[in-house]
Amino acid sequence: MAKMKMSVLLVGAALLVLITIVSTYLVLLLTNVIPSDPIKVEILINDVEKVYDGTPLKADSYTFGEGSKLLKGHTLELEYIGSLTDAGSIKSSATAHVYDGDHTDKTNDYSFKIVNGNITVNKKHIAISVKNEALDYGDGTNLNDKVKYEITNGGLCSGHKIVPDYTFVEGTTSVATTMTAEIFDANGVNVTKNYEVEYRSANLPINKTKLTFKTESKEKTYDGDAFSDRDFATTLVYGTLPEGYTYDVLYNYTGKGNVGSTELVISTIVIYDNMGDDVTSRFDITTQNTGILTINPIEVDVAVSNKEFTYDGQEHSWSDFEVRGDAKITVDQSDTTRFTYNNYSYGVTAVSSTKAVDAGSIINIVNFRIVDSYGEDVTNNFRINQTSAILTINKKPLIIYADSKTWDYEEDTPRTITEKTPAKSQGLITGHKITVEYSSASQLRNAGTVKNEIYSYEVLDGDKDVTSNYNVTTVDGTLTINKKKVTFNPVYTDDGVTSISAYYTTYGYDITSMLTTDSNPGDFKFVSDDIDIIILDITLNYDSLLHAGNYEILPAEYKIKSGNTVLTAEALKNYDITFNPVKFQIKRTPVFIVVDSTSVEINNSPYIDFICTIFNDIGDFEQDFDIVVDDFDYTTVGTYNVGITLEQANTEASLDDYILTVTPGIITVYDPANP
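Above: the chain's sequence. Below: its structure in token form.
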């Protein structure tokens, strides 16, 4: 037995030691005293791509590889490595750090596999075209300076510029022009490699060296003399003469010196080289006879004010104005129709202006006359500049009211308004006439009301249509067909009875039977004043009446005929049918109850049977109410007034149906032993 206990003790001790070792290992493992294997995490750097725009491109996102994740509460921070500005492609990587909720670095708990992404910058596509513009060739200047280009597709990045270069292949009538270019950024760095450039060449026409001369205009204020050759001038406005070349110009001029303008026309141009030889044939010369020799009148600005009228059928015009001065003209501030020029005084008057009758807006053109201080007309020596002015005739407001009419219903008679005149109008000019066409929808056959709408209208001034001069508002009228009024009055046989009365009975009244007679049963009718319409059948809406009160009895079912035709519900919608009711009164029935007088012995039960007498008994009063004699003192000798109390025996009974009069009885209680 002792050996067995010892074995148990040894096994228990060994197990305790093993548990202690395992616990200690777990604690050390969790506290990183004994390091565990790092957590493997795969990070995929996402690709990024864009078209070249001169700014750097860098990776900015990632995804976890399949099955990769962080421990709960840990966050990943990446620092991306690699960026690309120029066109091309590179790999992007990153360094990774992991932090727990206290921002303690836990990166060593992980083993990261970083899968690089791609950074791609694509070339920017542009198309550059040689402008198809003819070249003046052979004048010794550099063609590169003449050719122009344009970007016909895409565009440069901000701050970039093109430096073009051209190659020329000369032909008979044209030069094949091919372009190349380099592109530089704002800092002068060549960034051509970042562009995919499409070059579009052109064949540029060539001719003789083109020269264009134009005559120059000269102006002066009228002084009585014509222009002289010292006033003539011509300018080479297109092309270039080689250094040392000169030219002479001959003119054809026939000006006289009056106020007006004369074209300065070139008749001949001769070109000389630097040796003085005539080389005119080497050039393609065109002339622009744009030179105008002008003797101007004095300019005067006249401002006419805008004006508005409302159409009234009359002719309107407006010519109020004022002269406005400038550096040469001084306006008399006390009278803005006068001015001073070169120390001479002038007056301006309006002699005519635009006239308008019909509504609308037009430019108001005013013609003026200028006279000097001697009263002479000098208008032709002035240019009168009239500022823009508008003459407006506003439309006159006009309200047209459609006609309204009312008819009484007549069978199969449609109603409409065919007149061409409205009911009335507001704003019409005296002498003008309005005609209207009413809508075909404005027609009515049955009782009711519809709008009478104006379909079209016309305003005439004699035979002239002046509708457009009005701002027209139309107001609808109405077409109304009133229902035909039919009133039915009650009659009873030949007596003309229209009211009946009776006293209340507990069994009620059968009105149908009350409205008949033995000799002429059922001869009760509602009859119209219109002899063409009568009641055929009638059913009253009360079969019997149970309580006192005033009743009006009307037909619940009826038929109406016109002539021999029974009118349908559709036909009856055109009638306003009124019934005067039969008045029936159930009067409260008088009931007189007399309590009998009697004598009873003291201390004996009171005699209550047949103690009451009912007069004018209607038959069922005692079935509806229990009559209870009031209590009295039968233990004391004396005389007592005794009435009654009514207790309802029938739930439908009501004392409101009666006029009750109760006469109390006298009860004498006596003592036989002591008379």
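Residues 1-11, 25-34, 516-523 have pLDDT under 50 and may be disordered.
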